[in-house]
Amino acid sequence: MFHPKIADFSATRHILKTFNLRASKRLGQNFLIDAEVVQKIVEATEISEGDEVLEIGPGIGTLTQGLLEGGAKVTAVELDKKLPAVLAKTLEGYENFKLVQGDILKVDLENLMPQNFKVTANLPYYITTQILLTLLEKKLPITKIVTMVQREVAERMTAAPGSKIYGALSVAVQFRSDARIAFDVPPTAFLPQPEVTSSVVICDVKEKIKVADENFFIKVVRASFGQRRKTLLNSLTGAGFPREIILKSLDAAEILPSRRAETLSLEEFAKLSEKILQSLN
Predict the structure, then answer these.
(1) Model's pTM, two decimal places?
(2) Most exposed among 100, 153, 165, 207, judged by the fewest C-beta atoms under 10 Å?
(3) Helix, strand, or coil here: 224?
(4) Rounded distance, CA 64 to CA 41, Å?
(5) Cα-atom radius of gyration of the chain, to the nearest Å?
(6) Starting from the edge strand earliest in sequence, which strands make up the sheet with 97-101, in order?
(7) Are the C-beta atoms of 272 and 250 separated by less than 8 Å?
(8) What pLDDT score does 137 carry?
(9) Measured distance CA(82)–CA(102) in Å, rounded
(10) What is the mean pLDDT of the chain?
(11) Dihedrals φ, ψ of 267, to 5°?
């Protein structure tokens, strides 16, 4: 079966008109219309024949088509109830495609994707962080996440210690993956055009540092960044940790109480969380 490229301005407008669709501001929808960008995302995902890929928010099937043509087996989760009927037509005839209508934050991903898989997504800006952290914190058998996000979020995901934008998201992402910005995507690559530049971020998922309790580690990180202008001692005690335990733990971790969260490396956060956990137990 011949499949025309969906990643095209005219093709996308035709699809939207045929199905009487408009991009939903509430869902943060912007449809990709640049075939070159689609190809670059597929290449960044490093698709091999038969690779299992989870796509979040397939929309009208633009990126999905590129993944399928690259040989992937795609399971797509779409929140918009109007789009399954559209995808049934735009991706008609493609094998190895499965659609799940639902909320990615509520879908049982453990059962849906039990084997090693990769993730691709053009994430809506309003919920990017929540989706990324959910994927990383669930300990799913993900090997790679390739996601298109707002440039500002991409910079936060990949920020180094000491920078003004280094924060809890930076630590959470880098704790579980090697993250890097692959390329930028201009507003002109979308219909309608967003007001910001997007970036594609590649996260190679791997265990970077071992900690006794990952949830506790993340709790300490979030508490440390809770009040960025305050010292670690004041931020952590302000979050409810006993002052004497924080002082003891900082000393044991060889971290000055006067330091701020944005100056700590991944290794220092891991060491500090371990010392606090030991002191509490």
Answers:
(1) 0.93
(2) 207
(3) helix
(4) 11
(5) 21
(6) 97-101, 73-78, 52-56, 117-122, 142-150, 198-205, 177-185
(7) yes
(8) 86
(9) 12
(10) 93
(11) -65, -40
243 alpha carbon, distance to own chain's centre: 34
Q: What is the pLDDT of residue 228?
A: 80
Residue 2 reports pLDDT greater than 60: no
Cα–chain center distance at 209: 20
Separation of alpha carbons 279 and 265, rounded Å: 21
Tell me the C-alpha to C-alpha distance, in Å, between residue 67 and each of 15, 39, 48, 96, 225. 19, 9, 10, 10, 38
Q: Which candidate, 199, 151, 145, places its Cα nearest to that of 176? A: 145
Q: Are 175 and 14 in contact (CB under 8 A)?
A: no
pLDDT (tens digit per residue) in 19-48:
998 877 776 778 999 999 999 999 999 999
List C-alpha distances in Å: 200 to 42, 62, 94, 183. 11, 16, 26, 6
